[in-house]
């Protein structure tokens, strides 16, 4: 009986969990697992639901809401947990790799974007006036140019970040 119920509900659960996962910020597999657990608890306590398909849809939505609520209440640490050193070799190596990847991506940008973003990333901490003078453009056009270049950089990095 239980095996038949699980077998018959599996495709529906997979589809429902996939549909609800994105909006709840959960992985579809996590939603599926939570609903299977609820079903097993239900079977042990009350037996099978009268309308298993309806119960399953409701259980998926309930778990998705629970996940959204939990995500709203979770907050990242304000600081690193005790014992985590800021200068660990692994952390330094990863930061250096991120900086190299960013610099390489900036060099691949079109037009004036590489020079502009290099100036913005400069350790000299240049002002907009100094950057505009260095690039030979008006200070007023620096903001829109910067926005356009950052948009290009974002589009360039999106596939790399997703693949990583």
Quick structural gist:
By secondary structure, the protein is an all-alpha fold. Helices cover 74% and strands 0% of the residues.
What do you see in this structure?
This protein has 164 residues and is an all-alpha fold. 74% of the residues lie in helices and 0% in strands. The chain contains 7 helices and no strands. Helix 1 crosses helix 2, helix 1 packs parallel to helix 3 and helix 2 crosses helix 3. It starts with a helix and ends with a helix.
Uncertain runs? none
Structural class based on helices, strands and sheet pairing? mainly alpha
Distance between the termini: 44 Å
The averaged pLDDT comes out at: 85
User: What is the ordering of alpha helices and beta strands?
Assistant: HHHHHHH
Radius of gyration: 26 Å
Beta-strand content bin:
under 5%
* Largest β-sheet summary: none
Contiguous helical run count? 7
Number of distinct beta strands = 0
Helix content: over 70%
Give the overall shape, derived from the CA principal axes: elongated
